[in-house]
């Protein structure tokens, strides 16, 4: 038996013998009791994993280690104090030990989160410290992640680790540190409600020399009318502002940016019948971005000043009987539209990968893959970037920065089917778009995006007594452009996901999952400077590769939020142009996770 296998068995034995519940000290004895007090909650995690490298590439590679093992023991302990009925304070202390550390070696202790919140005069809600904030997809928003359509349950444990580490809430909110205030008012004439929220946060600290403090502030005002008329028409109007700026008075900085995005959105209920409803929805606005310098006499000069607009408007309808929804939207996002808080991606493709970042005798940089996107937390970020981030066309070329992707005009379509008690939930989204302004040529690119996903409760169909579900997802992207041979673009990428989750015994699940991606063709991916200004076009991005990620495992659920999973995954990468560079990655891991 290999030493690593013996270590895995020992750790699993310890995990299985661990208690599955924690008594919150200082908490009320029952949920019916109220009042100030101190409670404890948090998350504990034990992870051990082995990653191995093989394939054709290794036949001539004499320098790369073929197997790596790592893991961690982690506890995020949240101490929540309520000194009175309208005030709450919470801090999270993290204790972490790398796999292989003994007797305190490799242990780190840090404060992971700290905030206070409360209510003033039963009207004004406030929060100070760490906070999650989201506005609209064009102002302050966290775009969807790459390489995912409808992720199989098998891959969720490692993705949940990434979500926890990067403060992803699942609501497209961004983690900021600052203060926010919000309140709501209700009326009995014309208006039904008025909601106001505002925030300010610091994005970057000064180095007291050339890097200034960077802040972001803004908020939202939303008004909802009372229903009126026989058709029960109701209007919701909103105004949104996200303003990012550098404080040139901090340190010795003499250059900084200003980025303001002001938008207005609406949701007009045209009809609301028993059988169906009809809405007109939309959002429109303008962005402004400047780069400023200031001399010793505090005189400010603008070196870069650019603005642009966007509009998104359409209709949605829902047939309430079959729970069938449809939407049609016209979209026009200007070539110079820039919103740093909405366009910053989750994945930073310039970061080094945690495993096998370079492989081969020549130490070539390995491309990011589905394997990395599914598990490498080091590639992910919640930070707001300084400019449009690098993207990989194989995973997202049509809308790499989400709905706020600049230089796009066209139509987006959507269909949903989600009956409350039915065995099937499904969705279909499509986008037919075109560039507004050519990049490096007068020819314009055309874009096609199709995404489909479905969740099928097989147990309801066959009368199985235990949960049995299948998940499916696919994404097809095509980018094309005509013109002279040097201008031509034709890139197609297809991503397919499938998963199976089956309870075979009380609280014991079998998990199976697969991801397959193929890409072929070429495109030109510009180098960006000064936010979304094209600086240069390097050599064409050419791809003719495929990758597959397959896995299986078991999961035992001790109770809600407490589980142990054992999994094996296998990844294969192949490039038709360079078959000698094909490689495979394998992974065995055990994860014990406890939320309390």
Describe what you observe in this structure:
This protein is mostly beta strands. The chain has a single domain, classed as Maltoporin, Chain A, CATH 2.40.170. It has five helices and 26 strands. It has helices at residues 3-16, 156-165, 340-343, 370-375, 458-462, and strands at residues 37-54, 67-84, 87-98, 107-120, 124-133, 174-186, 191-204, 213-225, 234-247, 255-272, 276-294, 300-319, 324-333, 358-359, 364-365, 408-417, 424-434, 446-457, 468-481, 489-505, 508-523, 527-529, 533-536, 541-559, 562-575, 583-595. It has a 22-stranded antiparallel β-barrel. Strands 14-15 form a two-stranded antiparallel sheet. A two-stranded antiparallel ribbon has the order 22-23. The protein is globular and about 75 Å long.
Q: In CATH's first tier, which class applies?
A: Mainly Beta
Largest sheet: 22 strands, antiparallel, barrel
Mean pLDDT: 88
Quantity of strands, as a count: 26
Choose one word for the global shape. Answer: globular
Structural class: mainly beta
The value of Rg in angstroms is: 26 Å
Number of helices: 5
User: Approximately how much beta-strand content do the residues carry?
Assistant: over 45%
Helix content: under 10%
Return the CATH architecture: Beta Barrel
Q: What is the number of domains? A: 1
Sequence stretches where pLDDT stays below 50 over 5 or more residues: 1-34
The third-level CATH topology is Maltoporin, Chain A
What distance lies between the first and last C-alpha atoms, to the nearest angstrom? 36 Å
Helices and strands in order:
Elements: H1 3-16, E1 37-54, E2 67-84, E3 87-98, E4 107-120, E5 124-133, H2 156-165, E6 174-186, E7 191-204, E8 213-225, E9 234-247, E10 255-272, E11 276-294, E12 300-319, E13 324-333, H3 340-343, E14 358-359, E15 364-365, H4 370-375, E16 408-417, E17 424-434, E18 446-457, H5 458-462, E19 468-481, E20 489-505, E21 508-523, E22 527-529, E23 533-536, E24 541-559, E25 562-575, E26 583-595
Antiparallel strand pairs: 1-2, 1-26, 2-3, 3-4, 4-5, 5-6, 6-7, 7-8, 8-9, 9-10, 10-11, 11-12, 12-13, 13-16, 14-15, 16-17, 17-18, 18-19, 19-20, 20-21, 21-24, 22-23, 24-25, 25-26
